[in-house]
Design goal:
Chain lengths: ~110, ~110
């Protein structure tokens, strides 16, 4: 299995600012993903982080709001830009191993005031 | 939209088997059934997956009906630490997209 870490684990931010979340995997993986979990809700896929190219975004999510990078096979970042209180959520990174099982990080808890 | 239907909540007595059902009547021939759980304030945890044969690992057993339209996750001896939201997800095997589409899941409450 892959062990995934995220930084920061939580943050409180002011509206209008941006936060970059880091995701590190302890082994090489094929695919990496970013999810959002709003309070009391299930997980929603934001995008697939592609190594060396632009991320693939799901309907309702755009690159200007959630820029994503994946410079190598084990690391990715998600930026939440120009934040508003509606962006208060848990943001989760996941990675797919070569056995096609997907593992999740512990999440980043974001509160926007 | 999620392609599975699960009960919203279930209770189970500690030490007893927890049987969590999932309906996936529109499953395609190349789609696997995956189970994850999310304990409060943690990231989802992979439990088990299968295609058509029953599967067992150290955490649970997965029973898939012969027509593959439904499945049951079995936790053989539930403990208080098994209290969580359990998600049943169908996903194509050898998927180039790797997407996991989460529904609302089943909240399992294990009681003393």
């Amino acid at each position: 299995s892959a062990v995934i870490s995220q930084k920061p684990s939580r943050d409180i931010c002011q509206r209008g600012t941006s936060l970059t979340i880091q995701c590190q995997v302890d082994s090489q993986v094929t695919m990496m993903f970013w999810y959002r979990q709003q309070p009391g809700q299930s997980l929603t896929l934001i995008a697939t982080a592609n190594q060396g190219s632009e991320a693939t975004y799901e309907s309702g999510f755009v690159i200007d709001k959630f820029p994503i990078s994946r410079p190598n096979l084990t690391f990715s970042t998600l930026t939440v830009s120009n934040m508003s209180p509606e962006d208060s959520s848990i943001y989760l990174c996941s990675a797919q191993s070569f056995t096609e099982t997907q593992y999740f990080g512990p999440g980043t808890r974001l509160l926007v005031l | 939209d999620a392609k599975t239907t699960q009960p919203t909540s279930m209770d189970c007595a500690e030490g007893r088997a927890a049987n969590l059902p999932c309906n996936h009547s529109t499953i395609s021939g190349n789609e696997y059934v995956y189970w994850y759980r999310q304990i409060h304030s943690q990231g989802p945890q992979y439990i088990i997956h299968g295609l058509k044969n029953n599967e067992t690992n150290e955490m649970a057993s997965l029973i898939i009906t012969e027509d593959r339209k439904s499945s049951t996750l079995i936790l053989p001896h539930a403990t208080l630490r098994d209290t969580a939201v359990y998600y049943c997800i169908v996903r194509p095997g050898s998927s180039n997209t790797g997407k996991l589409i989460f529904g609302q899941g089943t909240t399992l409450q294990v009681k003393p």
